[in-house]
Amino acid sequence: MKKINFITILLFSVISSIAQTGEWDTYIARYEKGPGSTLVNMSLKNSAPDRNYPFLFAAGVKFNNCTSEGLPGPSALNSLNKISDSIVALINQKTGARLAGTFTYLCERKDYFYVKDTAGLKEAVSALLTTRFNGYTPAFLVKKDREWDAYLNFLYPNEETLDYMGNQKIIQRLIKAGDKLDQPRVIDHFLLFKTEKDRECFAYIAISKKFKIETKDSSGNAAFPFLLQLSRNDRADLTSINNLTRWFREQVTSCKGKYDGWETIVIK
Question: Per-residue pLDDT tens for 108-166?
């Protein structure tokens, strides 16, 4: 299964205690047969793959109370979170485990663990669901995954999704500060380059798109020491910002640089 394009970010209140430890984030992306919702433990990225936990064990349920696109209906979340809490507690009792995330897709939700040993886990989870959550059909995915491919290349957001997630968070802060996002404003963009020649390469592209050069400075980044700060008057709604950051991310590679984000002022 492969992510084919990003739809939008969903930041909701997670009732389940599943996300109370570690650094968690959530997003919705479109897959081959519809949208899927991912809650991912971002903090595992720095230690992945952890070969002390070589097996992937994903366990959850198929559920009926879902939308036409296969995501949980409003009344389903509480029950699904209780199921996740119970599965997490059980797995932690049975074996050493690292909880990597939760994936919901096509009326099915599974919690993804990396474990030391999978022996007896399917049977134990099946018994739990039969006893405490009768009416749900168990769903499993079990395989050896020493390189943590499922976490690094499936659950963990790709570069484009990470970019959009960051955009959403900045826009949420603007809205919280009272900004209605109905007026264009000056938006500053920051880019990093390995050489001064690379920076000049992109400055030429930016000027052709009517961006103003605000700063050429040192970035403090040893790998990309040359900073370029640009500005332009643009809209700051999510669609407009996503289009802008996508353009920067695509174009900056031609000059061997990388996009380092944006900022703007609050307009009330």
Answer: 999 999 999 999 999 999 999 999 998 899 999 999 999 999 999 999 998 888 888 89
Q: Which domains does the chain have, with CATH numbers?
A: 5-155 (no CATH), 159-264 (3.30.70.970)
| pLDDT tens by residue, 189-229 | 999 999 999 999 999 999 999 999 999 999 889 999 999 99
Residue 167's closest CA among 80, 100, 246? 246
φ/ψ bin of 258: left (φ > 0), alpha (ψ from -120 to 50), beta (otherwise): beta
Q: What is the CA radius of gyration of the chain?
A: 22
pTM: 0.79
Sheet holding 185-193, edge to edge: 212-218, 226-234, 185-193, 258-264
Neighbours of 4 (CB within 10 A): 9
- Give the Cα separation of 187 and 239 in Å (integer): 15
